[in-house]
Amino acid sequence: MKHYANERLAQLARDRGMPDEYVRDLRVVSSVLPFKVNEYVADELIDWSAAPDDPIFRLTFPHRDMLPAEVFDRMAALLDAGASRSELRATATAAQLELNPHPGGQLESNVPTLDGRRLDGLQHKYAETLLVFPSQGQTCHSYCGYCFRWAQFVSQEELRQALRDPADLTGYLTRHPEVTDVLFTGGDPMIMRTEVVRRWVEPLLTATPTVRTLRFGTKALSYWPARFTQGPDADDLLRLFEECVARDRHVAVMAHFSHPRELETNQVREAIARIRATGAEVRAQAPLVAHVNDDPDAWSRMWQLQVELGVVPYYMFVERDTGASSYFGIPLARALDIYREAVQQVSGLARTARGPVMSAAPGKVMLHGTTEVAGEKAFVLSFLQARRPDWVGRPFFAAYDEHAQWYDELKPVSFGTTLPTNGGEQG
């Protein structure tokens, strides 16, 4: 597989007809935020005749507005002046810290301990579900510009989450029988060779009987479907899925499809069919983001294709408050309209997709709609998951705000209720 990053990415853009002015912007933005594209994305998914407005191009290539104007100007001035690598890195590091690299209190509130030792590389936010960041899987086949895990891919080690030893995972699980679901994430666990995936998975089949579901969060179906179709390593991976199913584990491939075009190639359709033949399930989720899929027709088309291919539509997320969110973010009111218009166009089989949903600090918050409370227009929300389980399923209200893009920007309605926070009460 051929990858394009840094100067090779700039050369690819130039070779495919992008002007010098854009290539300069690419170099500036990619000096702060990580970008990588592989040959499948470049050759099969991007319509270069429509670039830079092609949605897959917008998804995977830099745009100057992905950085705050002052950050862009600062980096551009250094690059234009021929600044040293050390000066560029120092300035980029400072800029990265300004972009909220770990939203939602991930490093402060979610990292568990074992015998007094922090297990960086595990996240245990909800009682039943444990997230695992295998150290060998902390990259992706290509990067999405809106990725909320972008801090995994920059040069600051202290920002990365990575677990090196599977024994730490099983050791933690044996002391936490409440965990029924383990989600391997990253990066992308499907970047790992199957023999490495097996080292992480096999102990869960023998040493942790309380774990009933194995999830794999991956963009590989979109960005490198050959992972599931070509060569002995692909066959080995599918055999591993079959073994997990045979041992009474539910296997869920949590696919990340951002645009219907990612579902239209022969390669991805073959990959989905092969995964489903093992007994594993494929579920699909993505954030709603400007310039890529902020169109109800794109979502209805995507959900319909998923149903036809046997994929379960799962979540429409709201873009998190990190990285290039100022470029990709959409007001919650507009997100609600897009979801409603999209879901009206599909049958009940596709209406399994829940949204718009925010993975905020206190939990997964779903925006149901708007109403009037004591004469005041309000959003209606509830928790699908929460740090406090008693919050789940209880509706609450926030003052309607046509500009708010994230949970932290919402305010209580004026008659005295409060919004749930990490330490607060639900009113």
Task: Describe the overall structure.
Helix content is 34%, strand content 20%. The protein has 15 helices and 15 strands. It starts with a strand and ends in a 28-residue tail after the last strand. β12 and β13 (363-373) form a beta hairpin. The strands form three sheets. It has an eleven-stranded mixed beta sheet with strand order 5-6-7-8-9-10-11-12-13-14-15. With 427 residues, it is of the alpha/beta class.
Task: Flag low-confidence runs.
Answer: 423-427
Question: The biggest beta sheet, please?
Answer: 11 strands, mixed
Question: On the 0-100 scale, what is the average pLDDT?
Answer: 94
Taken from the alpha-carbon principal axes, the silhouette is: globular
Q: What is the string of SSEs from the N terminus onward?
A: EHHEHHHHHEEEEHEHEHHEHEHEHHEEEE
Radius of gyration: 21 Å
Lateral strand order in the biggest sheet = 5-6-7-8-9-10-11-12-13-14-15
Total beta-strand segments: 15
**Percentage of residues assigned to helices:** 25-40%
Beta-strand portion reads 15-25%
Topology (elements, then pairings):
Blueprint: E1 3-5, H1 6-15, H2 20-30, E2 36-38, H3 39-45, H4 55-60, H5 69-80, H6 85-98, H7 106-109, E3 113-114, E4 117-118, E5 122-126, E6 129-132, H8 166-174, E7 181-184, H9 194-206, E8 213-218, H10 220-223, H11 231-246, E9 250-256, H12 266-277, E10 281-288, H13 296-308, E11 312-318, H14 325-328, H15 332-343, E12 354-360, E13 363-373, E14 376-386, E15 396-399
Parallel strand pairs: 6-7, 7-8, 8-9, 9-10, 10-11, 11-12
Antiparallel strand pairs: 1-2, 3-4, 5-6, 12-13, 13-14, 14-15
Helix pairs in contact: 1-2, 2-5, 5-6, 8-9, 9-11, 13-15
